[in-house]
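User: Here's a protein and a ligand (NAP). What would the complex look like?
Assistant: Let me lay out the input and then the predicted complex.
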Amino acid sequence: MQKIQVGVLGATGAVGQRFVQLLQGHPWFEITALFASERSAGKRYVDACRWNLRGDMPTALHTQVIHECAPGPECQIVFSALPSETAGEIEKAFAAAGYVVCSNARNHRYDPDVPLLIPEVNPEHLALIDIQKRARGWNGYITTNPNCSTTHLVSALHPLHLRFGVTKIFVVTMQAISGAGYPGVSSMDILDNVIPYISGEEEKMELKEPQKLLGTFDGSGVRYADFVVSAHCNRVPTRNGHLEAISVEFAEKPTQEQIVQAWRDYQPLAQQLRLPSAPQPAILYDARPDRPQPRLDRMAGSVAGMATVVGRLRPDPLLHYKFMALGHNTIRGAAGGSLLNAELLVALGYLGQEAALLAKSTKFA
Ligand code: NAP
């Protein structure tokens, strides 16, 4: 059976390169188109892209010629790693032209008819796709994944919210420099330092993303969850992996053991479907007193960089409990999150019957 053809928008950037890396040898997808700005369009990938990841740029892509970010090239899905200054209109143009757009950019995350998706958390929000296509008259559609720090916050809290109902969240993030793209924050600013400000980040975490992700689809739209979030977002001199100190209050206060059990029992749809990029388990609980740590734990789990690692669970004198969560920002927090979204779309038939059959015919351990 033929693989599904995919493209990468912003293929030369930090997240775009992650897409390229993660798509190598993927059982369902193959890259047939690479897109970037007009500065890179017309050049070979090897000439336009300063490869910045461990391991080499895939040889098969060296001579692929980069396209400008406009519909035309043959592929069914486009993964978007475009900056927010340009992503909005470009993604709409692709969806209108019939492509399935899986985006990392923030532009459409809060559109009422666009799913903001973590496959483990809210697969039922995919019902928005039909609403979106009808409302906009598109053949294609857009799905989005949340911001990198929200992803791991919500992933860690979802099993707890299901059982005990989250009412208040206080979170302090320690976000890696790769979260700012390449070249990102200057070395003179970040070495020997912590920058206690990341533009727009606290607003996304406090007011929008966790509430939409943990909201309820009511048949016509998503009703946002009504817990309160207070977020302090900081840039720290780690390279990859966002660490988050989280305090939480529940509607029904559980015991510490019940929280650990909720994490251990967590077996959501993405894991049940055994999607290729779904880590087994989705959440790793580490009981060691000094873990998780970015350098040691960001690649933990059965699919490197895709799990959320939690630890240091203890009572909190202000809210009920506090703990640490860690996750890779450019893998699960960006490209890997989008990739898993696309796998869920395929498995649930949102790319048609042939694609769903391909997914079924490929078995995973
Ligand atoms: P980046 O390293 O700056 O890469 C930007 C990419 O977009 C490059 O391929 C660039 O191509 C292309 N591009 C720039 N301007 C363009 C234009 N006018 N038209 C078409 N293409 C253009 O950025 P990044 O860190 O990968 O971030 C990409 C997106 O992912 C952003 O929306 C970001 O917020 C989001 N995101 C990032 C992270 C993270 O951890 N880094 C996490 C979650 C979400 P050229 O090389 O040709 O300039």
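Summary: The longest helix spans residues 148-164.
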